[in-house]
Amino acid sequence: MNGKTxxxxxxxxxxxxxxxxxxxxxTEKESDSDEPTNGDNGAETPTTDVKAAMITDxxxxxxxxxxxxxxxxxxxxxxxxxxxxxxxxxxxxNDYESNLDQLALAGYSPLxxxxxxxTDTVSKVAPMYPDTMFINIxxxxxxxxxxxxxxxxKENEGSYLAGVVAGLATIDTFxxxxxxxxxxxxxxxxxxxxxxxxxxxxxxxxxxxxxxxxVIALYTGSWSDVAKGKELGLSLIEQGADVIYAAAGxxxxxxxxxxxxxxxxxxxVDADQYNTIANSGxxxxxxxxxxxxxxxxxxxxxxxxxxxxxxxxxxxGLKEGGVGLAPWHDFDSKVPQSIKDAVDKATDDIISGAVTxxxxx
Amino acid sequence: xxxxVITPDLFAAALRIATPLALAAIGGTICExxxxxxxxxxxxMLFGAFFGTATVLATGSPWLGVIVAxxxxxxxxxxxxxxxxxxxxxxxxxxxxxxxxxLGVTGFLMELWxxxxxxxxxxxxxxxxxxxxxxxxxxxxxxxxxxxxxxxSHTPIVYxxxxxxxxxxxxxxxxRWGLRLRALGEHPRAVETxxxxxxxxxxxxxxxxxxxxxxxxxxxSIEQVGVFQENFTNGRGFIALAANIxxxxxxxxxxxxxxLFGFADALQIKLQPFRDVVDIPPQFFYMLPYVLTxxxxxxxxxxxxxxxxxxxxxxxx
Lengths: 361, 317
Description:
The complex is a heterodimer. Helix content of chain A is 40%, strand content 17%. By secondary structure, chain A is α/β, with parallel strands linked by helices. Chain A folds into two domains: 23-30 and 46-153 and 293-316, Rossmann fold; 156-289 and 328-352, Response regulator (Rossmann fold), CATH 3.40.50. In chain A, strands 2-1-3-4-5-11 form a six-stranded parallel β-sheet, sandwiched between helices. In chain A, strands 7-6-8-9-10-12 form a six-stranded mixed β-sheet, sandwiched between helices. In chain A, α6 packs antiparallel against α12 (337-352). The model of chain A is unreliable at 23-43 (pLDDT under 50). Chain B is mostly helical. Chain B has 13 helices and no strands. In chain B, α7 (156-174) packs across α8, α7 (156-174) runs antiparallel to α12 and α12 packs antiparallel against α13. The longest helix of chain B is centred in the C-terminal third of the chain and has 28 residues, at 198-225. The interface between A and B is large, with 48 and 49 residues.
């Protein structure tokens, strides 16, 4: 091979390497095509000089839960409050700090960091930029730094409702995929306290309506291994589970496919997964929603209104509307009224304090 | 408890989990036997899975998707071949570049073609080859339930992989191609002296490993899950390399090593509900492939030495 070809190939290879990082770090989302009314002629859009930015965890935008929900809250803030928004995706955990630095230096505030995986980074970066406000979804701080808001959700309360649904459904016959075994399944992502909280609520809810029920819990050890999510689903179904609740990030999609293949029902997590996992309606009983979009919007609005609750932990449970069950969608006519009533009763009991949902197993 | 852990699905799951690992591992075996290190398998699988899925989304034909996945693997491996054979670059660097490229390009094309990152729409998948039912009581029915569950419940590529393992193993030790391939990795100069082109032999080997890597990606996306997701392969390409070493650079060894890793993973899934009885943390099983590989490389379980000329660029005199 002569020198010239070699140079060209080398240049191409170098270009490829550069390309490889393109969607990794700096996917910019700007108010383009889909909002033509926003901008010059948008007389109704109020103006504010608040510039909000988010950084994703490694799951990135498109996770159909968590990061996408935060972005939804941002889009709403852009439309309704005229806030300028920006997002940086993190390809690896090494990007967290540099992404936060970059946005803080560019003058964005508040900065939303999604996920407990970023809590340590926020604790480290926040003191360096005292004038920048930070919001960490699922972040727990003790004490809370003066320019940080930690957002917590009572996932155990929402999961309790999912448990009530699954616990009653497995002994019901409203769908022919429900077998006669009193077994339900739980698929977790990484085996961490946060996901144990989902599991604890789910089990407590199921046992509250069906004391003899067997709840099998499996963990994928990953947030993104779809194939593993499916294997776990298949294994649960083989062990007799007919309703499976997954709190495992992207792995949940694999569990949905296992349910479709072998005939079981699925309960989604974080978002209303009926809408976010394509063609899942035939198995999607309901979802346990964390209304991250609402919370993010409210906090950005508080920033615009100069009422930002800096230096506090904000915890959203059933009472505060932070968690709850999604609509039944295709199962609305199938699910018996008795189950719907049981969910309503459990909701009232939790809100009134008559029932306290455990946070750990 | 034992009857809940030792089920037909335990072994069926082992076969399913082992298949993508084994395909990539055999690809790695062929490649390394020719003297080229191929750590790009992870990226090749990812490319195969993505383009396979994209083809099924566009045409609705899973088989066409498999073909495109294999072709994508071949094309990507051609980059590796050009860099490491013709340009004599460091093979590890070229492989790493392809792995990074695969993550970037597939994510980028998802945005470009489907307008969103993350996961694609679900696709039509390849269905299991046989559809027998197993029910009833009695010993014979029980035996039939096991045979059906373990061996007859699989999708085409799972069976193809066993055939590929046997065929490449036979070819490696009983054909002229196999003899030359092994010589390429041990003593390329001798091959050249015998009048056979080293570059050509290595090119063929790298492209074959690309085809197998692409097929591994197709198995994951078009057979197992039916979607493509960013970073879909989750490090399976690297476990496959470990399987290749654990299998001592032979196709059947690679297959059996993958089967062992697959079995460990399947067992881990079945044992999880019994954490209160047998408390082995799942993390123990996650690390097992790597620990076993280190054990083999360290020579604890007999001699395991790779091809002598692997990783060394060949310069024609």
